[in-house]
Amino acid sequence: MQYDLPLGKRLPLTRGAAGKILIADASDAELEQVVAAAIAAGHEEPGFTVEELRSRLPAPGLDYAYSANERVVGVLSVGVALTNRAGRANEAMALNCPAEATTEEKIKANVPELRRAARRLSELLEGSVY
Predict the structure, then answer these.
(1) 80, containing H or E segment
(2) How many other C-beta atoms lie within 10 A of the C-beta of residue 13?
(3) Is residue 16 a contact partner of residue 77, using CB atoms and an 8 Å limit?
(4) 12 in Cβ contact with 35 (< 8 Å)
């Protein structure tokens, strides 16, 4: 299986571990905007609601998101947020793997290393003009 994602491709925040972790702590007003944009872009069906979106997001306090077959059938992923100086998620880092090569338990076992990498990358970016 090969999965190529072109650099700069815009992806929905409503599906996939990377998108979901970015909006995990969003307010209802922000989620309403995400839902409206996802519907307008054709990523979600008309009638998709904030409640449906919330059901896909990580539980409050969980600092990673898990995804199975959401953006691409046969792909599992976990994602963590990179935070800005204010501590708000502004980027995400995800590990994606073919479902036939891993399990939910195995891919989630990589979350501590993703957290470490995200913290380090956030530290490096903090010192830039970025």
Answers:
(1) strand 75-83
(2) 22
(3) yes
(4) no
